[in-house]
Amino acid sequence: MTTTENEFPKELLLNQPERRGALIGEFYQQYGESRPRGYYAWGHQHEETKTTFFRENLAALGHTAESFGVDIGCQGGVLINMTDLIRWIGVDIDRMALETAREHGVVCREMDFTSAIDLRDASFDAVMMSEVLEHLPYPSITVREVHRILKKLPASAYVGSTPLDYHLHRRWKVLRGKRLSGEQTHVHHFSFRELNRLLRFYFEKVEYLPLSGTAARHPGWGLPFNLFVRDIAWVASGPKRDVGRWPVMGKDLL
Length: 254
Fold this sequence. Notes:
Distance between the termini: 47 Å
Strand content: 15-25%
Strand order of the largest sheet: 3-2-1-4-5-7-6
Structural class: alpha/beta
Largest sheet: 7 strands, mixed
Number of strands: 7
Helix content: 25-40%
Number of helices: 9
């Protein structure tokens, strides 16, 4: 090994730029092998409730079959075929999930979106990410990328869902010495406050639907989402034309 002073030895570099995506894809393939095959086997997380909420809000924003959207993390294509108001394509890093989606008529391709999203600026009327953000290490980068690929129109929408991990039940688990989540693929743990700040930083309007938790069972009680919602869906519309830099430090972010 030869090197000059203050120069990194280039012969140590692997020079395999696709390796990161391949490793993540391999991990999710192994993860998928433990799950049952089949179209509806990929959907067990409030699908009917979420897709009704998405369809109603997309229709209210004026979207039709002429609108074009992308489902990022499309899994087996369940939500695409249930949210069929507009024309969708899908991307995922999980090859087994993509095979299932294709078997049911979903136009999709493999893509690593753990940070950047390899799609062109202002290409979509809608972006869907259901149960995806919690699997990504830097959600603020991901939402910035979603904002980038959406058309900058009042009707453009970002729809999705995620678990919230700082409700009272999870806080009690931590006090008893347990993990916030037993799901090893969850690498980010949202509070409602953090999620709300992030979405409203990039979008003019955000609507929420609690999917589980005491606030979902008793909507008339007016319970705070930060403490009484376990899973939540959103429709964020009107991507802002001028946004600053998302603050990456500060206790107010949580």
